[in-house]
Amino acid sequence: MATFKHGVSILRDGDIISIPLGATQNAFAQADVGKAVKFQNLNGTMVAVLCTAGDDIDGFVTSVEPHTVNNGYSFGGVQIKGRVEVEVGTSAVAVGDLVVLDSQAAAGTAGVPQVIKRPDDTLDSSTTAALAADVAGRLNAYAGKHFWRCIQVVSGTGAAQGDKIIIERV
Known about the structure:
By secondary structure, the protein is mostly beta strands. 9% of the residues lie in helices and 38% in strands. The chain has a single domain (16-169), classed as Virus Head Decoration Protein, Chain: A.
């Protein structure tokens, strides 16, 4: 019997956006392609900056252009949809788990992002009022967030650091 395996999909129009990269001038290099980024406001302009440990991931750098924008800031593409192959970080990831960044190489150094299972969100159900307040707070906090989920273990079991997995934006 044939075995089905998920792959990294062909990207569609709208899966990659063009955006300034970094919170400082000339912050990104070709070595940063593939790294996880989050979006932030910099002087009224949305920019993509490298994620740090525990961050939710907004996308992955797909290109860094040789020219700069906005008085010297790096410019390039960020994949915000679809699938990406990454590595498991310091704790196991199973198919179906939502993930956050565990670690990645410093800016300017090549490397594959490592992810871990997103910490469980346990609701405060001590009272009805506490539960309602907790749910309302999380709805506000999660509005507009981009979560990524493990859909395939490519190498290893997903339990060891460095195992390769495919994640997909949900």
